[in-house]
Specification:
The complex is a heterodimer of chains A (316) and B (473).
Chain A (H helix, E strand, L loop, with lengths): L2 H33 L3 H5 L1 H10 L3 H6 L6 H10 L7 H14 L6 H24 L5 H21 L4 H31 L4 H14 L3 H8 L5 H10 L7 H13 L7 H16 L2 H7 L1 H24 L4
Helix pairs in contact in A: 1-3, 1-5, 1-6, 1-8, 1-9, 1-10, 6-7, 7-8, 9-10, 9-12, 9-13, 9-16, 13-14, 14-16, 15-16
Chain B lengths: L20 H9 L2 H18 L18 E8 L1 H25 L4 H4 L5 H5 L21 E8 L5 E7 L6 H14 L1 H6 L8 H10 L9 E4 L8 H11 L2 E3 L4 E4 L2 E6 L2 E4 L2 E4 L22 H6 L4 E3 L5 H4 L7 H9 L6 E2 L3 E2 L3 H9 L4 E5 L9 E2 L5 H13 L4 E5 L5 E6 L2 E10 L1 E4 L3 E3 L4 E5 L13 E8 L7
Parallel strand pairs in B: 1-21, 3-11, 4-5, 4-9, 9-10
Antiparallel strand pairs in B: 2-3, 2-18, 6-7, 7-8, 12-15, 13-14, 13-15, 16-17, 17-20, 18-19, 20-21
Helix pairs in contact in B: 2-6, 3-12
């Protein structure tokens, strides 16, 4: 298939996944502020900053001159047109990409994306009028629209290259997101030492943000602790947002794409996958969790670049 | 005195013509609310099929539906047989003319057309000189606009030989009608049109010497008003829908970038105007073309359909000479009539035009889409005198024609049914063989009395039924 069309399918799903992840990060941040037991944590500027640190947008936020308040952070990440990865801009980019490759989508897929966009415009109008706070119902809606698109895709599209490029975008974006959340959240947990109650909420928030709280309980049947959270989200092959799971899927997809191209992408993916399949938590700690995750994020970016260069770029 | 308008359905006494009798009986038996119901259903199906026409400046993603009227335009077998013969003859002659003016130029030597009319024409492309095309085909796809005058005869209004559009409406109208009125198709033997994409693909594949050619459809992109037709046809033919940035030139050939690597392209069905094809040769700041394409084309390493430079044959200044071309190249009498045309560059014809402006339609020779024209009968005195000044300043730029009374066909309106003006655009496919799917696109002016059928200006469409010949059945 045409590289441009493949690229637009890949990016539309990356943008949608990015919007969903942004909603997850913000939602958990807000609910955490509500349940937090200590007043120090509640007003802790570090906690407020977290969504910005995770998404690497702290400097961009400061540049807007907004005061460092959680509602401002949420407004910025959800709506700000100057922030390229705001939820609004992600959905817009998703829809723009979808629109130019409508022929490669099913009618239902297109309608799902287009409806999301039209409804978002209505929400934006409302939000402006009343200085409406960005709340959990909005995040819930974004998540549901993203779930809906995945479901519609699963149920309606032929199992062919377009389907594979759409899924490839999802998993590359998702792996990046899980690694970033884990890195920032556990950094804070470690710095504050072992306070059982605080850990419970903080790490519980991490798990909920990646829909893995139930998986944690089923797997460990024990109190939430930082080591196990890391283990679960890095090495568990059954949790759909763990690094290993994302890379297994990526590898499977790459094996089902044309084999005469994509050598670099398959090589990088195999490398990453080997570390995840056969690595241990002790090895991770020997390197330092933060360093390990930082390296993972970088390698994952290189993998994305390789996919771009091998399959998606015109005039390669 | 205005001649009575020819009504496609009824004769002068108001009785349905023989090929409309069965439809008339069916219509009379139809309860009124059913028609309303079917129209709603039709709109829904059209939206589903995704055949829409996007207007410029479409920001919120709403595309306008081209209204489809549910009363078919029926053409009987004999009439179609004549039309078909006339179309084949005409398009054949136009192709021969194009080959001639880019090679020996015999028609100019014979003095039948003034040389400056061709060689100094803005649509004439010197890059096409002595370039040999497979089967000497220039206009692989022609959309010939035909109207029926009050005398009942068919006249050619325009030969569209560049990038004629509208065929997707012809196809979607048929899908629609078959779904809504299957019983009507049982009482009428309507000749099928659904195989048009297959014929088009065959025409494009046979347009080059490569055995298993790769054919692509080149679109200017999704902001083009006909984008949905491009996407629709590409999907129907199973070929890639490419934009300029998907194509590039390597080692003297055109390639496209695919996920499997680069792939050579042999035939480009382009829906892009000549001057946008190659920024290196024409408009340097255009993004929709392919740099270097023109030179590959000159080497014969790619086929472009329609060929470059076909505009010189469908230009309004050349139109008056088409009957001459038919006699010159084919030694036949033209079957289809031309509309009488006054060429303002000729002093005596100019003075006639100036004296009769209120009765005439005056058009720019290179104009299209209804721009820069004067419709005498509906223009104000001020408009006419202002236009006369422009005409006198640059008479070469204009031709004039009598105001035609387009034939009318009934359509459904809120109050029942009422006649509206229509035209017809059959699509002629030319290659090793010439093929026409029976019928074409019937466009209809939805406003009462209006003669404007363009979809950009509120026109609608109708399904066009050509009936099987009764002798054959």
């Amino acid at each position: 298939m045409l590289s441009r069309v493949a690229a637009q399918l890949y990016w539309l799903s990356r943008y949608l996944e990015r919007a969903e992840n942004m909603a997850r990060i913000l939602e958990v941040g807000q609910s955490f502020a509500l349940v937090s037991t200590s007043d120090i944590t509640r007003a802790d500027p570090e906690t407020i900053k977290e969504p910005l640190v995770i998404t690497d947008t702290l400097e961009a936020f400061k540049a807007t001159g907004r005061p460092m308040r959680s509602d401002q952070v949420a407004q910025f990440l959800a709506w700000d047109p100057s922030h390229p990865s705001s939820i609004f801009n992600c959905i817009q980019s998703c829809r723009e990409n979808a629109r130019s490759v409508r022929g490669a989508l099913t009618v239902e897929m297109w309608e799902c994306i287009n409806d999301t966009w039209l409804e978002l415009l209505v929400k934006k109008k409302k939000a402006k009028g009343s200085n409406h706070p960005v709340d959990s119902s909005f995040f819930e809606w974004i998540k549901q629209r993203s779930h809906l698109f995945r479901g519609v895709t699963f149920a309606t599209i032929q199992r062919d290259q377009p389907y594979n490029f759409i899924r490839l975008g999802t998993y590359l974006e998702r792996a990046d997101n899980t690694a970033r959340i884990l890195s920032v959240k556990t950094r804070v947990a470690q710095a504050e030492g072992k306070d059982m109650v605080d850990d419970y909420y903080r790490l519980g928030a991490v798990l909920r943000s990646v829909s893995a709280l139930e998986a944690y309980r089923d797997t460990y049947r024990d109190a939430i602790d930082a080591d196990r959270v890391s283990e679960l989200l890095i090495f568990n092959a059954r949790v759909p947002r763990s690094l290993l799971f994302c890379l297994e899927e990526t590898s499977y997809i790459l094996d089902h794409l044309p084999q005469q191209t994509g050598r670099e992408a398959r090589k990088r993916c195999a490398n990453l996958l080997t570390h995840l399949r056969f690595g241990t938590l002790n090895e991770v700690y020997a390197q330092g969790l933060e360093t390990y995750l930082e390296e993972f994020v970088n390698e994952n970016i290189h993998l994305g670049d390789a996919v771009q260069g091998d399959y998606l770029e015109v005039l390669a | 005195m205005v001649a009575p308008i020819y009504n496609e359905m009824c004769d002068a006494s108001g009785q349905p013509r023989s090929h409309y009798q069965a439809f008339d009986a069916w219509l009379k038996a139809c309860p009124e609310e059913m028609v309303h119901l079917k129209q709603t259903e039709a709109d829904l199906i059209s939206r589903r099929t995704g055949i829409t026409f996007s207007l410029n400046g479409d920001e919120d993603g709403t595309e306008r539906l081209i209204p489809s009227d549910l009363i078919p335009r029926i053409i009987d077998a004999h009439e179609w047989a004549d039309l078909e013969k006339g179309l084949v003859q005409r398009v054949k002659a136009l192709n021969m003319f194009l080959h001639d003016v880019y090679h020996q130029q015999n028609i100019l030597r014979a003095g039948l057309i003034p040389s400056e009319q061709v060689l100094a024409n803005a649509q004439y492309m010197p890059m096409m000189l002595s370039l040999d095309l497979p089967h000497q085909t220039y206009a692989h796809i022609a959309g010939v606009d035909i109207v029926r005058h009050s005398d009942g005869g068919f006249y050619v209004l325009e030969d569209n030989l560049r990038v004629p559009s509208g065929v997707s409406y012809m196809l979607s109208n048929r899908i629609l009608m078959m779904r809504l009125f299957p019983d009507l198709f049982r009482s009428y033997a309507v000749r099928p049109v659904e195989h048009y994409p297959a014929l088009l693909l065959q025409t494009l594949r046979s347009a080059c010497w490569v055995e298993q050619p790769t054919v692509v459809l080149h679109t200017p992109g999704r902001f083009n008003s006909a984008y949905f037709e491009h996407a629709f046809l590409a999907k129907q033919m199973g070929i890639e829908l490419v934009e300029g940035s998907d194509l590039f030139v390597r080692d003297g050939y055109v390639c496209m970038q695919t996920t499997e690597g680069r792939q050579q392209v042999d035939v480009i069905y382009r829906r892009v105007d000549d001057i946008y094809i190659d920024p290196l040769s024409f408009l340097p700041d255009s993004f929709i073309g392919v740099p270097g394409l023109a030179s590959v084309y000159r080497q014969g390493h790619v086929v472009i359909a329609n060929a470059m430079g076909t505009g010189v044959a469908d230009d309004k200044s050349i139109y008056p000479y088409v009957p001459e071309m038919i006699r010159f190249y084919l030694d036949e009498e033209p079957i289809l009539k031309n509309v009488q045309t006054w060429q303002c560059r000729k002093p005596d014809e100019l003075s006639y035009v100036l004296a009769n402006l209120p009765d005439l339609v005056v058009k720019e020779v290179h104009g299209a889409g209804g721009y820069g024209m004067l419709v005498g009968p509906t223009a104000s005195k001020a408009e006419i005198s202002e236009f006369a000044l422009r005409l006198k300043a640059n008479p070469d730029n204009y031709i004039a024609q009598p105001t035609l009374s387009l034939s009318a066909c009934p359509i459904f309106v809120d109050q029942g049914i009422a006649p509206r003006h229509i035209d017809l655009r059959p699509f002629v496919l030319m290659g090793k063989e010439t093929r026409i799917v029976p019928g074409g696109l019937t466009r209809v002016a939805l406003r009462e009395g209006s003669l404007v059928v363009n979809s950009s200006q509120g026109g609608g469409t109708k399904d066009t039924w050509v009936l099987e010949s009764t002798e054959v059945r």
